[in-house]
Amino acid sequence: MYEIRTDLALEAHEINAQAGREDGIRTEEETIDGFLVTTVHVSAGEGERLAKKKAGTYINVDVGKSWLLASEGFAALVALLAGQLRRLFPSGFSGSALVVGLGNYDITADSIGPKAVEKVVVTRHLRTLNPQLYKSAGFGDLCAFAPGVLGQTGMESAEIVHSIVEAVRPALIVAIDALASRRLARLATTVQLCDTGIYPGAGVSNRRSELSKETLGVPVISIGVPTVVDAATLAYDLLGKDADEQAAAALLAGDGKDMFVTLKESDVITKQTARLLGFAINRAFHGDMSVEEMEELLS
Amino acid sequence: MYEIRTDLALEAHEINAQAGREDGIRTEEETIDGFLVTTVHVSAGEGERLAKKKAGTYINVDVGKSWLLASEGFAALVALLAGQLRRLFPSGFSGSALVVGLGNYDITADSIGPKAVEKVVVTRHLRTLNPQLYKSAGFGDLCAFAPGVLGQTGMESAEIVHSIVEAVRPALIVAIDALASRRLARLATTVQLCDTGIYPGAGVSNRRSELSKETLGVPVISIGVPTVVDAATLAYDLLGKDADEQAAAALLAGDGKDMFVTLKESDVITKQTARLLGFAINRAFHGDMSVEEMEELLS
Amino acid sequence: MYEIRTDLALEAHEINAQAGREDGIRTEEETIDGFLVTTVHVSAGEGERLAKKKAGTYINVDVGKSWLLASEGFAALVALLAGQLRRLFPSGFSGSALVVGLGNYDITADSIGPKAVEKVVVTRHLRTLNPQLYKSAGFGDLCAFAPGVLGQTGMESAEIVHSIVEAVRPALIVAIDALASRRLARLATTVQLCDTGIYPGAGVSNRRSELSKETLGVPVISIGVPTVVDAATLAYDLLGKDADEQAAAALLAGDGKDMFVTLKESDVITKQTARLLGFAINRAFHGDMSVEEMEELLS
Amino acid sequence: MYEIRTDLALEAHEINAQAGREDGIRTEEETIDGFLVTTVHVSAGEGERLAKKKAGTYINVDVGKSWLLASEGFAALVALLAGQLRRLFPSGFSGSALVVGLGNYDITADSIGPKAVEKVVVTRHLRTLNPQLYKSAGFGDLCAFAPGVLGQTGMESAEIVHSIVEAVRPALIVAIDALASRRLARLATTVQLCDTGIYPGAGVSNRRSELSKETLGVPVISIGVPTVVDAATLAYDLLGKDADEQAAAALLAGDGKDMFVTLKESDVITKQTARLLGFAINRAFHGDMSVEEMEELLS
To answer: How many CA atoms lie within 13 A of D103 on its CB side?
Structure first.
C-alpha cells in the first residue's frame, strides 16, 4: 500500500485525527503576533505508534510567506521563533551549543541546512581569542558546521556529527534540515521545531543514522522546513479515497519517485528561509542581538 | 475550463490525436543511434489552430537521462543534436548566428538558457582580433548573450534581443529556453528544436513579446527542454476524464499556481543539460569541433 | 619609459603637481560627514594633456574601509555618494537612466560593475506594468544590465551598450567599472565619479571603444573603484626616482604583467562595495529610498 | 628585521644557498615528461634550522601554466603528480586515506583546498553500500572533507580534523592548502608535496595548530600551491640588499599587511589548479582511473 510521506508531526496527527485515532497525541494552538503556533505533544507508546514520531514536543509555526515580509515583520518573526526554540532548551541550559546544517548545499531543495549555518554568528572561538568582546557583547557559546553528504565526503553525516560532538562536547545540538510535507500549502510556510532529534529518511536525501540524545549523548533540537511534497503524495491526495490507487501508482511509477512538487521560486525562497532560521538561532542564543547586528557580524 | 499547458508540439499533437483531430499536422518518427527523433510538421491554418503552435517544423529528440551518459554517449548525442539543428538552418545559410539564452539564471528551472550560453564557443570577435586562428580552426561566426529578465533589468528580453540584432545583424538567431511539458516522463529528457521562434508565455517566466522572423527580420530557431510540469497539469492528468475538475481546481487554487513538479536533482540536471545544448550548438556551427576541444576553449 | 598606470584623475593630478605642472587642473577639497571629497576640474586643452584625462569633473570620495561600516554609517555614506552623483546630473535632468555594469562577473577584481547592477532597483517596466506602484513610490525611471565581456559574448561591451541605448533611449547613462590605482592605500577605499564617460583600457580588462556622449549621444556618468594596483607600478613606486628602472623592468618582465596587488579579502570587499555603489544609485534616482527598502525590493 | 615569508622548502633552500649555508639540506633535480621535479631532503637538526622547515622530503613540481594545458598534457601532468604523491606514501601503505581541504571557500586565494576536495572521488562509503562496484572498479578507500575556517565554524580546522580522524581512523591523511611564495614566477606554477604535515601560518589564513603525525597519530602528506606573494616580500626583493629597508617598511606599513600580489585571472586559475590536485589524488589512490572517468563520476 502506498504510504503517505510526511516529516511533520502536525500532519501525522491530522491523518490520525481523520481516522479517529488520537490517544497519546495532544495538540495546543496559540496565535502570537499573528502567527499560528501549534504544539503537538506525542507521548511514549500509543502516541509514538500513531504519530510515527518519537515521543516529545513538536512546535509548528505557521510563518506564511515569510520571504515577502518587510524588515519589521521579519524581525518580529525572528524573535518569535527564537522564543519557541528556547521553549525546547533543556531545563537549566546555559552551556554551549553546536549547530549542524544537514543536507546538500548544491541541491536547492536539500540546501536549507547548510545555508542556515552560513547565517549563524559563531562565538565559541572568541572566548579565548577575544574574551573582552565575548563578555561585553552578551554572546552565547555557539559553533556551527555542515557535514555535507555521503556522496561527496564518503562519510555519513551522523558519523561526522558524532566525532565533532566528541571533540567540542556541547551541552546542546541544534540540527537544521529540509523536510517533506504532504500538503502543498505548507511548502516553505511552516517551521517545525522539536526536541526529539532527527531520524533516518527525513527530507530529500537519505540519512542512515539518527541524531538524538540516545546516539550522541547530548540533547538534540531539530528545526525543519518542508521544501518538497512528493509527486506521488500529491497524486494520492488528489485521487482521494475513492480513487484507483493502482492508476496513480502506475502513472507515477518509475518517474514519480525521482520527482517532487516545489515552489517556482524555490531558489530564492530557500535562501531567505535559511536566513530566517539562522537568525532565529542567533537570537535564541545571543540575547537581544538585532537583525542589523547579525548582518554586520556576518558580512 | 482548465487548459492543459504544454510547449511541446508533440504533446499538442498527442492531445489532438486522442481527440481524432489530425488535419494539418504530420508526424515522422526515426531512430538515430538509439535516440527517437520525432518530427512534427504543422501546416498553416488548420494545423496551427489544432496544434496551438505556429506553422513550421518541430523536432523532438528523446535524449533520455542524458545527464547519466558516459563521455562517448554524450559526444554521440551532441553530434546528433547538431545534425538536427542543421536541418533547421535556412537554406544556403553560411553567415553569422546570434545565440540567445532566455530566462533567469538564479531560478534553477528557468536557467537553462543563460547556462547554455556559458557553454557556447563565441568566435565573432576573432575575425578581426585573430583572423589566423579564426580561419585555420574552421570556426563558424557565433556570438551569444543572455538578456536577463524583466524584474532584474527593467527591459523586456525581446526588446534587448531586438536591439542587439540591429547592431550585430546576424543571419540567424538561436534562442534557448526552458519549456513546460504535460508529462512527467519528459522532464529534462526531451529536446525540442523548431524553426518558428519563441512565443509569449513559454517556460516558467512570462515573456511578453515573441522572437520570430516576423518581429526580428531574421530566422529564429528555438531550442527548448521541459524543466517543469505544472502541478495543476499533473493533477488534471491524474484525475483523468472521469474526474471532478472542480475538485482539482479547488485543491490547487491559490497554492498550485505557484508550484510545479520537477526532478529531485534539477540543479545538477539543468547544468548538464545546458552543457549538452551549448555543445550541440558549437558542433552545429564550428564544424567537427570535439567535446574535448570545446572544454579547452571554454576553460 | 615605464608609464605609471592610473585611472584616477586625482592621482594624475598628484603626479603633475609634484612635477610643478598645474595649469588647467583645479582641485577643491571638502569634508562631508567625515568623508573627504575631492573634486578635480580638468579643463580642455592643457588640463587634458597634463591629466591624461578628458575635460570634465572628477569627484573622489575617500570612503575608507566602507566594508567595515555598521548600518548607520553605511546609510550615511550611501546618501553622501547619492548627493555627489546628483551633482553630475545634466542640468534639468528628470528623465530615465540606464545603468551599465562593465567587466567580468567571474574575475573578482573586474566584477564590481556587474555585481553593482544586481543591487540596482530597476523600475522602467513598472510604468506600464504597475503604474499605481510606480507613481506612489516616488520611483525614478531606471533600467540596468551588464553587457559581459568580449571573450564570453563575441561582442564588444560598447557595441552592446550602443544598441541598448538605441532601443531604450535613456536621458542619462551611469556606467560602473573597476579601476586601476597607483597607490595601495586607495584600493577599494576611493570612489571616483565623473561626467566624462569611460575610455579604453580602464580597469583590468581591455575595452576597445569609449562610452561617452560623443559616441552614444547621451551624457555618461561613470563610477569607478580601484580594485587593483599593477605589480609593476608598485615596484616603480618603491624603487623611486633614484632606482634603476631597468632592474624593476627585468624583474617584472614576463610575469609582472599578469599580476597585480590586491586586498586579501577582495572577494568580500568587492561584493560589499558593489552593494554600496548600487545603493547609492538607487538613492540618487529613487528619492528618499532607505537601505532597508532597497533590501526588501531586491530580495 | 623584515622576515621573508615562504612556505616552499625550495625557496628556503635558495635563500640559504645564496648565504653559503647548505648543511643538512640535499637537493635533487629531475625532468619528467618535460616538467622539472626538484626534491629537497631536509634532515633533522641543522637542516631543519636552516630551512625553517620540519625534517622530511619536499617535492616541488614545476607545473608551469597548467591551466593552459590541452587535455592530453593535463592527463600527463595528473599522472606525473600522482606518481610523485605515491613516492611519499608510507611504506607498505594499502589502507584508507582521508583528504582534507584547508582554507576558506569564499576567499579565492585561500580556496584551493576546499575546491580540490570537490574534485576527489570518494569511495569509502561504497565498501558497504555497493561492494560489487567497489571491488570491480579497483577503487582505493578515500573520504574527503573541508573543515572550513574558524570565523565561520567557531572551531579550529585542526580540532575538526582531529575529531574526524578519531572517527574514521584512516591510514593516511592528505592535506591540501594554499601557500605563500616569495617569487612572482611561482604563483600557481609550482606544486609542493611533502611528508611532514602542515604547520601554523601557512597560506593566507592563520592556522593555530599543526596537522602532523605527532598531533594526529597518522602520517600526513601535504599538497600546496603558492597563490600569493606578500606585497611586502615583493617590495623587499625589489629593493634588494642595498635598499633602505626602512623605506619599504614605511611604505607598506598599515596597508601592505592586508595586501598581496596575485594573478589577474586568479579565480579561473584557482579553480583549474584545484581540479589538477583533486585529479592527481584520484589517480594516486584509484589505480589507472582516467580523467574522463573522474569527470563522469563527479558529474
So the answer is: 30
> In the A/D pair of chains, how many CB contacts fall below 8 A?
80
Do the Cβ atoms of C143 and B155 come within 8 Å?
yes
Chains that touch D (3 or more CB pairs under 8 A): A, B, C
Of C108, C237, C240, the CB nearest to D108: C108
Contact yes or no for D27/D12 (Cβ under 8 A): no
Give the ipTM.
0.87
d(CA A292, nearest CA chain C) in Å: 7
pLDDT for residue D202 is more than 80 = no
pLDDT digits (tens, 9 = 90+) for A30-68: 999 999 999 999 999 888 888 788 899 999 999 999 998
Find the length of chain C: 299
* Cell of residue C50, nine digits: 597634463
Using a CB-CB cut-off of 8 Å, the residues of chain A touching C292 are 70-71
Which residues of C fall within a CB distance of 8 Å from D266? 108
The backbone torsions φ and ψ at residue C124, rounded to the nearest 5 degrees and listed phi first, read: -50, -40
Please answer whether residues A283 and A138 qualify as being in contact, where contact means their C-beta atoms are separated by less than 8 angstroms: no
pTM, two decimal places = 0.86
Give the one of A272, A292, A299 whose C-beta lies nearest to C272's C-beta: A299
Which of A144, A155, A168 is facing D143, going by the closest CB pair? A155
CB contact under 8 A, C154 and B118: no
Under the banding of pLDDT at 50, 70 and 90, the label for residue C25 is confident
pLDDT, tens digit, 9 for 90 and up, residues A192-223: 999 999 875 544 444 457 899 999 999 999 99
Q: Which has the closest alpha carbon to B98: B179, B191, B161, B156?
A: B161
CB-based contact B118 C142, cutoff 8 Å: no
Interface test with D, best of A119, A123, A130, A153 (most D CBs within 10 A): A153
Distance between CA B57 and CA B63 in Å, rounded? Answer: 18
Mean pLDDT by 10 residues, chain B (299 residues): 67 68 83 94 88 90 92 94 97 93 92 97 89 83 94 92 94 94 86 89 53 94 91 67 55 63 86 97 93 87
Decide if pLDDT at D15 tops 70. Answer: no
Out of B247, B258, B263, closest to residue A263 by CB:
B258
- Residues of B with CB below 8 A from C150's CB? 125
Point out the residue among D118, D124, D167 whose CB comes nearest to the CB of A154. Answer: D124
Residue A173's closest CA among A148, A147, A138?
A: A147
**Residues D229, D248: Cα–Cα separation, whole Å:** 16
Query: Is the CB of residue B299 less than 8 Å from the CB of residue D65?
Result: no
Distance CA D287, CA D292 (A): 14
3-state secondary structure chain A: CCCCCCCCHHHHHHHHHHCCCCCCEEEEEEEECCEEEEEEEECCCHHHHHHCCCCEEEEEEECCCHHHCCHHHHHHHHHHHHHHHHHCCCCCCCCEEEEEECCCCCCHHHCHHHHHHCCCCCCCCHHHHCHHHHHHCCCCEEEEECCCCHHHHCCCHHHHHHHHHHHHCCCEEEEEEEEEECCHHHCCCEEEEECCCECCCCCCCCCCCCECHHHHCCCEEEEEEEEEEEHHHHHHHHHCCCCCHHHHHHHHCCCHHHEEEEECCHHHHHHHHHHHHHHHHHHHHCCCCCHHHHHHHHC
Mind listing the pLDDT tens digit for each residue in B46-73?
A: 888 887 888 999 999 999 999 988 888 9
Minimum Cα–Cα distance from A268: chain C residue: C299
The three three-digit cell numbers of residue C19, written as one number: 612635477
Within 8 A by CB and 6+ apart from C101, the residues are C112, C113, C114, C115, C116, C117, C144, C145, C146, C176
Size of interface C-D (CB pairs under 8 A): 91
